[in-house]
Structures are given as structure tokens and as C-alpha cells.
């Protein structure tokens, strides 16, 4: 049996990037031999094992054949006769289809090293089109390696275009898609992920609500970049530059979806887009089964981001409603993430990237003022049940009035 390092570990070593997880391929072995050596099997579908000590993944060399729609529609064939070259040809990109033995001798039948040097993301074979997830993977790698100058090869983009048109993308499960989307959003240049998806027509299939924002104008006074799609990408870019967590990045991507529904006669204004966008945000959330914290924040940011921008003008009662909607007393972190998303939205505008955002501290101060209202004295006065709730609200409102007066003094 011969063992090789494959995939990302080889690619990233050649790129001089840190290697985190290592994938291995085993040629010339049977399942029985692997088990006899103490490897632990994982998953029923693939001949994949975990190393008894390191816990790293070891896959038997295999070939694949498409036998139906979607990811389930694959037939795998693993046997000791399958060669390293046969295993590598089923991989997505040439730069991911290299193997290395323990002497660092490279096996590179599909010229991954050449493409690494040329900074090109290129598919290995026409079988690329057999798994639509690869469209998302290529877009994700494009985002990750954009800073190194990588671009997608025209012929690979063409295949991605065909895949997007074929309807195959719809066969992807929410779980597989979300894994790629969430990882791509956490890259340093997530906007490139969206741009590549848009370029190959996949965005229109996966997130038509986001795709629809391109070509929709906004008032130049607030949005020098005019285009809503361009704005959305800039907001996402700001979120990445400010190292925001996934929740904030997801909310940034979806915050303006309502603008895609504005009737053209009303352009460039978007009256009540915060409200009209909610059902679209909900649909995208559910399509990808985004985690609960991402779903929640996207909806709240969608609904309230203009409140955030107008924070200093809000009446104390509106400010209180905002804080109540966020349950800022029990969920302070979520409110922080809302503030962050609003700030990214404000900066994701052409020429305004460095602007200050005094609303952020103002909102934080308001939350603190409301949170500092002590409940004990109200209990001592004998308030209980719903009356206690009302009394607390009254006190918080008083605190917010005082806060606003002090802030504007
Ligand atoms: P990362 O740094 O994101 O882990 P990676 O290239 O190691 O990048 P993995 O998802 O760990 O990506 O997959 C390991 C290897 O398996 C890839 O390099 C590629 O060769 C192959 N691979 C994974 N998923 C697919 C797929 N859907 N289609 C084709 N090949 C794939
Ligand atoms: Mg990997």
C-alpha cells in the first residue's frame, strides 16, 4: 500500500500557505487491510478512514461515475487496482489534484503546479460538471486566493455557466451549499465569491434575491455608488475588512433585499424596503437552513438598519422599541452585532469607507442606560406581573429621555 498527501495540503504547501488539515489517499489497499492496521472507518458511503493516532482522513483511491441527479447520484469504485492518476482525475481543480509522497515527490498529471504558477483555477476534466457543488467550491477558492491574483479559467467559467443553466444547482442540499457559503463568507474577500457566482449565472439560481439587486439604483446623495448590488458587495467587503463574524457577514449580504422589489417608477427611492425585504430574507435563510443566529440577525438587520442610521434622531420611545425588539437585556451580543452590521452598511458606500459612525456609541450608550434601570425598587413598591413589566418600561423610557437630553446637550 502506498500513501500520499493530496488536495489542499499539497496546494497550500506549494503556495507557502499554512496547512491546517491534511487529506491522504491510499493506493493499493483494501478496506480489510486498513481495518487490520487500526484505521477507523467513517461514513457508510465512502471508503474513508481515520488514522488511529492523528485522526486525519485517509481515503482509498477511487473512481466515480455519475449515475443520477445531485450528490447522491454517484457510484464509487474503490479497489487496490485504482491508480493514483485515476483518483486525481475525479478532483475539482488542477491545483487540488496533486499528490505528494513522504519524500515530497510530486505527482501532478493534470498540471496543477503550472496553474498554481499562472494563478489559474482550472477544472481537471469534463467530469467537473457532474457535481454542481464544484461551482460553489471554485467561487470559494476564487475568494480565498484573490489576493494572490488567482482567477477562474475561461473554460472553467464556461462549464460553471452550463451547470448553472442546467438546473443541477437546485439539486444541491441546503447543508452542502451552506457549508461552502459560510466558509466563503469568512474568507478575506467574500465579495469575490458573490462576483464569481454572478458571473457564471449561479447567483441567479442560488440567491435570485441578491442577484436582483444589480442594476437597481439608489439615491446618489446617500449612495455615491448608486447600484444596490455594488453597495451590497462593498458592505460585505467592509465586514471582511473589519473581521466581522459570520452572523454579521450574512446579515450584510441580505440587508437590502427589499430594494430588489421596488417598482421602477419609485426608483431611486426605496420606501419601506426594510419591511418588504423581510419575506425575501426569510426565504434565503430557509433555503440554506442557515444557523439560527445567522437567520435572526439577518432579519433584525433587514428590519432595523435604517433605525440604526437614524439613531441620533430617534424619539426615546422608538429607541426603547428598538432595544426591546432586540431583547438587549438578555442578548447584548446580538445588539452589538446589529450595530456592527449597520456600521458596515454605512461604510460600504463609495468614498465613505472611512467615515465615522457616531450612531454606534450612541446605541451602545442607550442600551446601557436602559439596562441600568433597577428592578428591585419597583418590586419593593409592590409591582408584579404585567404591571411590573409596564413599570420597568416606563423607567427605561425615562432613562432614555435623560440619555438623549444629555447626549444632545
Ligand atoms: P480546504 O483548504 O478548504 O480544506 P481542500 O482542497 O483541502 O481545501 P477539501 O474539501 O478538504 O478541500 O477536499 C480535499 C480535496 O478533495 C480537494 O482538494 C479536492 O481534491 C477534493 N474534493 C473535495 N470536494 C470535492 C468535490 N466536490 N469535487 C471534486 N473534488 C473534491
Ligand atoms: Mg482539506
UniProtKB/TrEMBL annotation:
Quaternary data: Monomer. Can also form homodimers and oligomers.
Cofactor(s), by name: Ni(2+); Mg(2+)
Pfam family, one: PolyA_pol
Function of the molecule: Catalyzes the addition and repair of the essential 3'-terminal CCA sequence in tRNAs without using a nucleic acid template. Adds these three nucleotides in the order of C, C, and A to the tRNA nucleotide-73, using CTP and ATP as substrates and producing inorganic pyrophosphate. tRNA 3'-terminal CCA addition is required both for tRNA processing and repair. Also involved in tRNA surveillance by mediating tandem CCA addition to generate a CCACCA at the 3' terminus of unstable tRNAs. While stable tRNAs receive only 3'-terminal CCA, unstable tRNAs are marked with CCACCA and rapidly degraded.
PROSITE patterns in the cross-refs: HD
Catalytic activity: a tRNA with a 3' CCA end + 2 CTP + ATP = a tRNA with a 3' CCACCA end + 3 diphosphate; a tRNA precursor + 2 CTP + ATP = a tRNA with a 3' CCA end + 3 diphosphate
A GO molecular-function descriptor: ATP binding
Gene that specifies this protein: cca
Binding site for ATP: 8, 11, 91, 137, 140
Additional observations: A single active site specifically recognizes both ATP and CTP and is responsible for their addition.
Domain HD: 228-329
Binding note for cofactor: Nickel for phosphatase activity. Magnesium is required for nucleotidyltransferase activity.
Keywords: ATP-binding, Hydrolase, Magnesium, Metal-binding, Multifunctional enzyme, Nickel, Nucleotide-binding, Nucleotidyltransferase, RNA repair, RNA-binding, Transferase, tRNA processing
Enzyme Commission numbers on file: 2.7.7.72, 3.1.3.-, 3.1.4.-
Name assigned to this protein: Multifunctional CCA protein
Family as reported in the entry's similarity comment: Belongs to the tRNA nucleotidyltransferase/poly(A) polymerase family. Bacterial CCA-adding enzyme type 1 subfamily.
Domain notes: Comprises two domains: an N-terminal domain containing the nucleotidyltransferase activity and a C-terminal HD domain associated with both phosphodiesterase and phosphatase activities.
Domain of life: Bacteria
Nucleotidyltransferase in keyword set: yes
Gene3D superfamilies: Beta Polymerase, domain 2, cca-adding enzyme, domain 2
Binding positions (CTP): 8, 11, 91, 137, 140
SUPFAM superfamilies: Nucleotidyltransferase, Poly A polymerase C-terminal region-like
Swiss-Prot/TrEMBL GO biological process terms: RNA repair; tRNA 3'-terminal CCA addition
Binding of Mg(2+), residues: 21, 23
Amino acid at each position: 500500500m502506498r500513501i500520499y498527501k493530496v488536495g489542499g495540503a499539497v496546494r497550500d504547501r506549494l503556495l507557502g500557505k499554512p496547512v491546517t488539515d491534511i487529506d491522504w489517499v491510499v493506493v493499493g489497499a483494501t478496506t480489510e487491510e486498513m481495518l487490520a492496521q487500526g484505521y477507523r472507518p467513517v461514513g457508510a458511503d465512502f471508503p474513508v478512514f481515520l488514522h488511529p493516532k492523528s485522526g486525519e482522513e485517509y481515503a482509498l483511491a477511487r473512481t466515480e461515475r455519475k449515475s443520477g441527479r445531485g450528490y447522491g447520484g454517484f457510484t464509487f469504485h474503490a479497489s487496490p487496482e485504482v491508480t493514483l492518476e485515476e483518483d486525481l482525475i475525479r478532483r475539482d481543480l488542477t491545483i487540488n489534484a496533486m499528490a505528494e509522497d513522504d519524500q515530497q515527490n510530486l505527482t501532478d498529471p493534470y498540471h496543477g503546479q503550472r496553474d498554481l504558477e499562472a494563478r489559474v483555477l482550472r477544472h481537471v476534466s469534463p467530469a467537473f460538471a457532474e457535481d454542481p457543488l464544484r461551482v460553489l467550491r471554485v467561487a470559494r477558492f476564487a475568494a480565498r486566493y484573490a489576493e494572490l491574483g488567482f482567477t477562474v479559467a475561461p473554460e472553467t467559467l464556461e462549464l460553471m455557466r452550463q451547470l448553472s443553466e442546467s438546473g443541477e444547482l437546485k439539486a444541491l442540499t441546503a447543508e452542502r451549499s451552506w457549508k461552502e457559503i459560510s466558509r466563503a463568507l469568512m474568507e478575506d474577500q467574500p465579495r469575490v465569491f458573490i462576483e464569481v457566482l454572478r458571473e457564471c449565472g449561479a447567483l441567479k439560481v442560488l440567491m435570485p434575491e441578491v442577484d436582483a439587486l444589480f442594476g437597481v439604483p439608489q439615491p446618489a446623495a446617500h449612495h455615491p455608488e448608486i447600484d444596490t448590488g455594488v453597495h451590497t458587495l462593498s458592505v460585505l467587503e467592509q465586514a471582511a475588512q473589519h473581521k466581522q463574524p459570520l452572523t454579521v457577514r450574512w446579515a450584510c449580504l441580505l440587508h437590502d433585499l427589499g430594494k430588489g422589489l421596488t417598482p421602477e417608477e419609485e426608483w431611486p427611492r426605496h420606501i419601506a424596503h426594510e419591511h418588504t425585504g423581510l419575506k425575501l430574507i426569510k426565504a434565503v435563510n430557509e433555503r440554506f437552513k442557515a444557523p439560527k443566529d445567522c437567520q435572526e440577525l439577518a432579519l433584525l438587520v433587514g428590519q432595523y438598519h435604517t433605525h440604526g442610521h437614524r439613531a441620533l434622531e430617534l424619539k426615546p420611545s422608538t429607541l426603547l422599541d428598538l432595544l426591546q425588539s432586540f431583547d438587549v437585556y438578555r442578548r447584548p451580543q446580538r445588539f452589538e452585532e446589529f450595530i456592527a452590521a449597520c456600521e458596515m452598511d454605512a461604510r460600504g458606500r463609495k468614498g465613505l469607507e472611512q467615515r465615522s459612525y457616531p450612531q454606534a456609541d450612541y446605541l451602545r450608550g442607550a442600551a446601557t442606560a436602559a439596562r441600568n434601570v433597577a428592578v428591585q425598587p419597583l418590586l419593593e413598591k409592590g409591582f408584579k406581573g404585567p404591571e411590573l413589566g409596564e413599570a420597568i418600561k416606563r423607567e427605561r423610557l425615562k432613562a432614555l429621555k435623560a440619555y438623549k437630553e444629555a447626549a444632545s446637550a
